[in-house]
Amino acid sequence: MKDDYLWDGSGEPDPEIQRLETALGRYRHNLPAPAFEAIAEIRSKATRSRFLTFRLSFGLAAAAALLIAVTLFTYLRPKPATDLGPAWDVARLEGAPRVGSHSISANGGIGKLGVGQTLVTDSSSRASISLDEIGRVDVDAGTRLRVVRNGPDRKRLALDRGTIHATIWAPPGEFVVDTPSAVAVDLGCVYTLHVDDSGAGLLRTTLGWVGFKLNGHESFIPAGAVCATRPKIGPGTPYFEDATPAFREALFKFDFAGRTPEERSASLDVLLAQSRSRDALSLWHLLARVSDSERARVYDRLLALAAPPAGVTREGILRLDQPMLDLWWNSLGFGDVTLWRTWEHDWSQRQTNAK
Amino acid sequence: MERQVVTAGPVTHLQGDDSLISAARDGDRAAFGRLYDRYARMVHGILLARVPPREVDDLVQEVFLSALRQLHALRDAARFGAWLAAITRNRANDYYRKTGPETTLTEPVSENQEENRTNDHAVEEEAALILAVIRTLPETYREPLILRLVEGMTGPEIAARTGLTHGSVRVNLYRGMQLLREKLGQTTPGARFGLA
């Protein structure tokens, strides 16, 4: 019965309904839950603050003043979402960026962006977000960016698509950007993050370094390096942009295009043969991404390019001993991985507590 | 060929709504997040049946925040879906009250500027046309059709989430589909802009 397919998807598929599903699927809901915990926390603080104010100003005159203030607030606030926490200033750089349904080309080209709100730039508009004391994010044309959290110790955006340029001077780990295929964690840096319509991303670091993570798959991207990411796969292996074309092509195949062990092994052959000293960055990441049988080859090549410090043994690396891997990473001079481990521990605990 | 899988799984978790609502009332935001996961598609679909697509994502968040604030007023946890659906429809109505031409604070934004969901403009146009045609149908039909065809919910899931009976959802789905077929059959490329 074709009707069964309309009812519950069972029975003989109806091609016309399938065509409609395919066409309309682009409108389907696909955003994760906002940070209700953070929003509630902010609102709870606001409630406590109001209660204290009331007690201190107990008396007819004070109550009258409070009544006036509340009345003014109620009538003058531009949008309910703005009382959900601190909001950042958004400046129009070009065109007519929007926060929700409001264009910020009016009002002097300045708008506010709070938790739960979305900044959208069309093909002819750009904007700049001032993150108060922690940095700035410039938003290119064709971008959709949401504020998931704006707490005192954690700022979290979600880049659904488009391009942002982040200049962050917050403590490492405080500024986080979710993408459909990885989470970017600022470790003190300047970087550009792009997400296309399929959810695939590319992160390019200009200064400092950035951590990229999805489901335990992690990449560290120092200045001068880039890292691609794909939905359901996560971040690929970071590499320096001046690596040879053959190296970059082999890395792409290894990360995203290699369907069989043989194809991945062939790509690894090229990577090992083409790697330079600076490519120790990529080889260190590959240690945890190759099969057990191939790890020794990567170890030997990395050993030749950047000898490990005392305390790191071949056996330890081959069994992926994390402290030894971290020691070797730190000796490469790209950044202290302790920052990342601290953030990751904190982040994992928050995730666990949220379940 | 993306996202055309019909999902029936969440229906099996409905028994847990009571405990989630109870926990959410006690301040457990993770529990409220679980409710969001279960009901976000319903809220999204109801809004999509009423307001411009570019506004829907923001309004989904506003609906859930509103529900979070009002959760203490929900007397019967078993009616959470119907209650949330009512909040959603009210929010959609509010949207039009607040963004009428007299009260619009900002410049109008062209539909053509708003969403660059794909580079394939022909496919995008076809989707926009179909959605526009669905939105011309009576409310009784367009809501279940969008929940089924856009959000990928099954009929039983639509019934469970919205609090309607299976019979009612089934009839509305079939009649709505029949009307949609007729309207799409009449629609020509030149007539599409008259349908929005």
Characterise the protein shown here.
The complex is a heterodimer of chains A (355) and B (196). Chain A is of the alpha+beta class and 355 residues long. Among the domains of chain A are: 1-27, no CATH class; 36-82. Chain A has 11 helices and 16 strands. Chain A has helices at 2-8, 15-24, 36-56, 60-76, 245-257, 261-274, 280-287, 292-305, 314-318, 322-331, 338-354, and strands at residues 88-94, 98-99, 102-103, 110-113, 118-121, 126-130, 135-139, 143-150, 155-168, 175-179, 182-195, 201-214, 217-222, 225-230, 234-235, 239-240. The longest helix of chain A is centred in the N-terminal third of the chain and has 21 residues, at 36-56. Chain A is globular. By secondary structure, chain B is an all-alpha fold. Chain B folds into 2 domains: 10-106, RNA polymerase sigma factor, region 2, helix turn helix motif (Rna Polymerase Sigma Factor, Chain: A, Orthogonal Bundle), CATH 1.10.1740; 115-196, Orthogonal Bundle (Arc Repressor Mutant, subunit A). Helices cover 63% and strands 0% of the residues of chain B. Chain B is built from 9 helices and no strands. In chain B, helix 1 crosses helix 2 (29-48), helix 2 packs across helix 4 and helix 2 crosses helix 7. Mean pLDDT of chain B is 76; it is low at 1-15, 100-119 and 188-196. At the A-B interface, helix 1, helix 2, helix 3 and strand 3 of A face helix 2, helix 3, helix 6, helix 7 and helix 9 of B.
